[in-house]
Amino acid sequence: MSDKEIWFETLHSGFGQFFSIKKTLYHNKTDHQDLIIFENDVMGRVMALDGVVQTTERDEFIYHEMMAHIPIFAHGKAKRILIIGGGDGGMLREVCRHQGVEHITMVEIDANVVEFCREYLPHHSAGSYEDPRFNLVIEDGVNFVNQTELKFDVIISDCTDPIGPGESLFTSDFYQGCARCLNENGIFVAQNGVCFLQQDEAVNSHQKLANYFEDVSFYQAAIPTYYGGIMTFAWASQNPQLRHHQLTTIESRFTASGMHCRYYNPAIHLGSFALPQYLQDALSQ
Ligand code: AG3
């Protein structure tokens, strides 16, 4: 390893992770951020934006399955899905697996992320850009949700952390726009960082979302490359029942879908809403 170039993540100063670069496939500044895609012996291809790992070939399935299938199975009849961000294509791939979904819009601010991930991370999108239900919009997510006339059943905010272009996707403006373009029984989910290291992010999102949604909470999964423990996903809807399904309800929806996942299953679905006490305490202060 010693003769290979080492890439250090810079998200949390003073505590982090590194990757050895077997080969750099792409590295350049886009109009919005610094984009690197490289090959690593352990994690496969790795994509980072502004020094923060966004996705790796080896563990991306955990994140994408959890953000797509939890809200879609909880909803039960989701036909129209909005993905905000998602430029690597992994979220689109998982959403496309739902045959009941009729329309998918993805709003990504950075066309270059889409272009180079299609080229260098082909297993992420896995052909889903060709899906006839799919519509790509290159635009700022905040503008889109505040201006569109379209309505959605599920909104998935597959964003970066609230630094750089991702910052606006953690604002009241964005949450209000999302509440505005959700149908009745609609569900909003968003990545909210690793709560052990980024607890303020969860607390802030919780406070802001509560101004626009009746039911606001989080669910969680451990994703190895988002180091520091579990990642929390914000959950917001006007209907608290959507977060409290019986196992049998989710099981029958999952069975009917004919899907088999690598991380998600109905027991994980229910269990992922259990949150550590330190997070519950922080949220209730
Ligand atoms: N975007 C979320 C990356 C979060 C990184 N944050 C962290 N490690 N705390 C993932 C994009 C995948 N489609």
TrEMBL record:
Residues 5-238 form the PABS domain. The keyword Ion transport does not apply. It is an enzyme of class 2 (transferase). Catalyzes the irreversible transfer of a propylamine group from the amino donor S-adenosylmethioninamine (decarboxy-AdoMet) to putrescine (1,4-diaminobutane) to yield spermidine. Pathway: Amine and polyamine biosynthesis; spermidine biosynthesis; spermidine from putrescine: step 1/1. It comes from the Bacteria. It catalyses: S-adenosyl 3-(methylsulfanyl)propylamine + putrescine = S-methyl-5'-thioadenosine + spermidine + H(+). Homodimer or homotetramer. GO terms for cellular component: cytosol. The active site is at 158 (proton acceptor). S-methyl-5'-thioadenosine binds at residues 33, 108, 140-141, 165. It comes from Pragia fontium DSM 5563 = ATCC 49100. Keywords: Cytoplasm, Polyamine biosynthesis, Spermidine biosynthesis, Transferase. Belongs to the spermidine/spermine synthase family. This is Polyamine aminopropyltransferase. Its EC number is 2.5.1.16. One of its GO terms (biological process) is spermidine biosynthetic process. Spermidine binds at residues 64, 88, 158-161. One of its GO terms (molecular function) is spermidine synthase activity.
